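Sharing a chain and its predicted structure for anyone who wants a worked example. Both blocks are below, sequence first, tokens second.
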Amino acid sequence: MKKKLEIEITKSAIAAAVIFFVLTSGFMLHRFYSFYHSYSSFDQGIFNQVFWNGIHGRFFQSSLSSNLSSAVLHDGNLPTVFYHRLGQHFTPALLLWLPIYALFHSSATLLVLQAALMTAGGLVLYALARVYLSPQLSTLITVSFYAANVVIGPTLANFHDSCQLPLYMFGLLLALEKRWWWLFAGLAVLLLGVREDSGILLFSVGFYLVLSRRYPRLGLIVCTLSFGYMLALTNLIMPLFSEDISRRFMIEQFGGYVEGNQASTLDVIWALLSNPWRLIKEIFTPFGRTVQYLLAYWLPLAFVPAISPTAWMVAAFPLLTALMRQDFWALSVNMRFAINVVPGIFYGAIIWWSQHPQVLIKGAGNKGDGEMGRWGDGEMESREEKSWNDKEGFKRRFDIKPGFRRFWIFCLSLSLVFTFTSNPHRAWSFLFPTSIDPLVYVSVPRQWEHAGQIRSLLQQIPPTASVSATTHIVPHLSSRREILGFPSLRLINDARQEISVDYAIADLWQLQQYQVAFDDDRERLRQLIRAIEQILAQGNYGMIDFQDGVMLIKQRATSDSTALSAWQDFRQEIEPILQLSSLNAHEQGGF
């Protein structure tokens, strides 16, 4: 008999969801409107342009994505406004949210949407936990979700497609438990539409259904369809749009396993299978970072997932993918990749609690009242309603043992402390220094003063003009057809003509503040100064304004004398920084 979903969510779970949504959306919006320096801003601009093009009938097109394509980076071609991002990432599920963006077409809308989707995922997790567990325990698991570094960190990033994964995955697992097969199928399709690699999560669910013998036939179908879909998508469909999947992403993430500068997913899979010893080595190294990565998932749940076979099975392939990847960010718990492992970890904790209530819960018998029924003949037999009953309870007191409850709360607190001190995506740079030694801190009043100067320059750029901008300004200008990342100035327009952008704006002040502690910011500052000098020397652009380290140039314009004077003063001010950068570059080259 199919189960109806009749759940009254606790006030504590609702409070946790509200706090999570308000804080995460608030921090993201503050960073966005105050123009705080963040490495994730450029991707925010890409997604905003994709949505903006979408509501104008140009689905998944982006000149900003083209700026990062293999045709531009490797072949030296010019970016195009009609480039389809589907060649980089296949994300049709984003179309679901296009009506919301059409009502509020702003880059900020996507940040609020991301916070809302992650919050909704936590509420569905509560419903999933209530299939097996008491309201008290379900609430603690939900709070653990909202307090996890691997949830907060990616949520505070730029908008990304992975923010849909918890909602779809927890919904799919809930549909599995309730045997709502129509919903299971629908969410499986949505899950595959999130990204080209989200089928790995679905494959892992199928793997669990087979290995646990719950629904082995269904598991085989899920594994076959998800694996076949990913192979067909990455080898047949995505190459129709561009060669980025084989020339960029496979090489950037798994290039050490294959030879040459191009590889398909089949090439990578064969390379992994044919060299198992190297694969094992990559999984466990670097050992310290691998352990830290796993602890970030276990800590919010008081290490229960570490001893849960279900957690290892459902999270197996997303976790394996992260450990196999060779790019530095693969093991970062603040990046979007971390979300892929989250659903399996939390589902495994729920199942473990349902099967072992006597270990850490007062008043439980030898077997969990929420324990799953017998598995036989390849399918799970209809189990009795053994989960928590609000009217009858478990016919005895059912509370978490005080000692373990205190330990769990300690783990949650520790997770929040680690999250806060990691300052994910510089969301809290207004609260404390981004760097201690050397000290880098921009106060809130100073940052908002600088933001006001940027806005005064942005107002001089017409909404339909083509433009080039530095990273954290890009999201504010990306609601247009023609935009690039500075110092790129030329692109191919809809008429298939090569043009130069009308305006270019660059914030050098931000880099000046952060370069003292971050080498990449110092090098970026040096490159931009050199590019600006070359652009001005060519005479095609004139500097029409320069305020607080922010430059605005316009094509076929005469430079303003006041702006040029301010530029020269700034240039003189940072000359010691440029000389230091040149000296370091020379020493590294000589070495």
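Comments welcome. The chain has two domains: 11-37+84-380, 444-590.
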